[in-house]
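Task: sequence in, structure out. Protein: Trichome birefringence-like N-terminal domain-containing protein.
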Amino acid sequence: MAFLRAPPPTGELPRRWLPPPLATLLIYVAVFARAQAPSSALFLGLRRRHDDEGLRRRPGANQSMCDIFTGSWVRDDSYPLYPSGCPAIDPQFNCQLFGRPDTDYQRYKWRPNSCDLPRFNGLEFLTRMRGRTVMFAGDSLGRNQWESLICMLSAAAPMAQTQMSRGEPLSTFNFLDYGVTLSYYKAPYLVDIDVVQGKRILQLNDISGNGYAWRGADVISFNTGHWWNHRGPLQGWDYMGDGGSYYTDMDRSVAMQKAVTTWANWVDANIDRTRTRVFFQSVSPTHYNPAEWSDPVSKNCYRQTAPVSGWSYTGPYSDQMKVIVAVLRAMRNPPYLLDITALSELRKDGHPSIYSGDLNPEQRANPDQSADCSHWCLPDHAVEEPPLEDDYDGAEKEAFDPSRCDVTQGKWVFDISADPLYSDKTCPYLDKQISCMENGRPDSDYQRWEWRPDSCELPRFDAAAVLEKLRGKKLMFVGDSLMKGQWQSFVCMVEAVIPQEKKSLSRGRSLSVFKAKAYNASVEFYWAPFLVESNSDVPIETDASKRVLRVDSVAKHASHWVGADILVFGTYVWWKSGQKIKSLWGSFPNGEEGYEELDSAVAYRIGLKTWANWVDTTLNPKQSRVFFTTMSPTHMRSADWRRKEGIQCYNETDPIMDKGYWGGGSDKRLMQVVASIVGRMRTPVSLLNITQLSEYRKDGHASIYTVPQGKAISGDEQKADPRRRIDCIHWCLPGVPDTWNRILNAHL
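Result:
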């Protein structure tokens, strides 16, 4: 393939690796383009082209002699290809989830000088790869690319039935409708590691264990590099085995050469190249040394927000790439070398830096020492070719597609004509606690703010159409009082179109059920504030110091969840009491004896794992859809939005307009726990990421216009002491939770 750059017999050497989506596109191009001899793909030198100015139409990338590796990064605001809410993304790579304030790094696409890259067509990929397996084998950069491909294909086929299994060393993602399997096999050194008497032996001459798992793949992409430099605690082995001898260490380039040669011999002997396409990716660039791009101020990639301009920058050439090139040259049947190097060197802005789920707060506070300048954010830059200018209006938004529309990015727009679908006077099912207008709130503007995502249109809530979707089904909300508020919002949004005699609502201590009899549907709420069992389920224990949780059990609650067609879970604020969480395993003993006090994030992780295990082992994804509502922000500190004289959310009548605002009421540690656990579940769980959009709504809480603990308070008494009576946790209805349900409906 002329467009796959390979090291020429003489002259310049390749540099390094491209961030995941573009590398994925090039595999896509290579798999579907006209086949050429692998030796041609490896050894064909590509000419630099600098004379394409004035060309009216450039050739496509599948035409002969196109050097796709010489070009420039071009900003395109119509990207990225998928939202950061893609559940396949590891917290390690989910930079937006962990607070990265800028998004420009997602909006660059690679444009070769002499040709056009084809648009990535996910449906074509799935159709033509029907019944086949694509595997990535190597280190975490391979996993980075594997997750990228999953998200790109999921965005192209959002309704496809899928199944994900994460394991060690093999993880798989299946598109069941197409019979396509995407696999990642962890083998950071490619060769085997054996454990002998508790010691890890890196077997430089043995690949039989790993190789057994690679057989049968139709497309397989290998990589290795970074782990050969690890020393100390990060080193993945205790001894190296070579020819029957064992070494505590040796020259790392020599060791890598032996290992890659073992891999090459295995590929030549075991891979049938008439049925399997083999790729090798070069070593990923890191950006820890700002002197490489002439930046005297920075210490590393932290706060880098744009690519290196021009084409002249190249980082230091890696000895590891010299090893790879030499070994591939000597192979009998060389693989396709994806030598997409120099263009990756330009992307100093694409790394997680401190916005990685793998870093703790102390590490994030020390970017000079802790920034991750090795891996790549997902989603990162775009890889598709844009439509022709005559056909494209950059201001035009596409219809809502949950796999492509990132609802976390947008703004609140005031619409005086946007009357809510109900009021606390017309809906008979609202609790007094959140009926703010009934409780004397004098303003109503908080009901007329509409959330508008940047990249798509959020559909209006059509109650009749929603009920048709729910015909014959059971929708259940599960969680705490915030989830109860979302349930009441949903009920009030649909109930008005149902005749009085065709609807009913029954309330219980744990289970409340709204029945839409005309549709044979029910919308239910189950009270389980921690999801796992506790001594504060029923009755509620108001003293947080006396609450005890069984973090290993949901059985009592889960018996009520079975049979629901749609489940919407959520839990957050009850874990934020400010105290250690008293946690039990097994049956409750007498009193409070035998519990262990855990940090809230630790207990939260254990509890969510218990819930996730129940979902994975009990629910059939073909019969039940599962959602998880992310944490609902609180607004307890007016100083967070620079109102030092304010009293929490009291007298707040407008949203916060600072893009990306994140206050002290949302714990990113717990957000990280949710992303980590949901991302590793076998059962597909859709995150309703309502946190960022709700962060702006300091004006939407019940404030003093509530009924605390069921006790009515006069307006004068409330205003006389707002600090004691204020509720900046729950939301007025109609209000912000109505937007949560618009997002839920869009997913349905």
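The chain is about 25% helix and 20% strand.
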